[in-house]
């Protein structure tokens, strides 16, 4: 009985810290270009960043690996080994709900604006020598996210 109680408390405490969120995003570039998509984040472990444009791609981060999947041919995917904004984004997301005002990474600064009503990210401003842009997160809601959305080999378009 003692062990059951310890296991039960462990399960409850793990679930109370489980954090899953879905947002739409809008990337805005200095030249006026805009890209839209959906982002799914699951429990400090997984992130899916899916562009709506069929000519672009979907990024899936899981098991410390970042996959890039072509939207117009999801059977084609590869592992990204280089540094990525997505890896930086997951580090920022892992700070929830105690986001910093800004984050300094190797070659970039990411400034943060919080949505006052939900305490989640409203806008990220990315500044570096290679990239300057803003990412707006809209319609963010906490919800249970299916593990299927993070499968690479059996990719599901959402």
* Helix count, DSSP H or I runs of 4 or more residues: 2
Structural class based on helices, strands and sheet pairing: alpha+beta
Rg: 17 Å
The largest pleated sheet is described as: 10 strands, antiparallel
Give the tally of structural domains: 1
Low-confidence blocks of residues: 1-17
Average pLDDT number: 84
Please give the CATH class.
Answer: Mainly Beta
Q: Helices and strands, in N-to-C order?
A: HEEEEEEHEEEE
CATH architecture heading: Clam
Order of neighbouring strands in the sheet with most strands: 6-5-4-3-2-1-10-9-8-7
CATH topology value: outer membrane lipoprotein receptor (LolB), chain A
Helix content class: 10-25%
Count of extended strands: 10
Assign an overall shape: globular
What's the arrangement of secondary structure elements?
Blueprint: H1 2-16, E1 20-28, E2 34-42, E3 46-51, E4 57-62, E5 65-70, E6 77-80, H2 85-93, E7 102-105, E8 108-114, E9 121-128, E10 132-142
């Amino acid at each position: 009985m003692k062990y059951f109680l310890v296991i039960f408390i462990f399960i409850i405490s793990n679930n109370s810290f489980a954090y899953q969120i879905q947002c739409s995003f809008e990337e805005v570039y200095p030249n006026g270009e805009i890209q839209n998509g959906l982002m799914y984040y699951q429990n400090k472990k997984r992130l899916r960043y899916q562009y709506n444009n069929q000519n672009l791609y979907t990024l899936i981060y899981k098991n410390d690996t970042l996959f890039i999947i072509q939207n117009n041919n999801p059977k084609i995917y590869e592992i990204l080994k280089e540094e990525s904004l997505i890896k930086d984004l997951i580090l920022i997301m892992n700070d929830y709900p105690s986001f910093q005002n800004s984050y300094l990474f190797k070659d970039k600064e990411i400034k943060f604006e919080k949505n006052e009503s939900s305490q989640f990210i409203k806008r990220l401003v990315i500044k570096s020598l290679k990239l300057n842009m803003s990412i707006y997160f809209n319609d963010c809601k906490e919800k249970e996210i299916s593990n299927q959305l993070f499968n690479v080999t059996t990719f599901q378009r959402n």
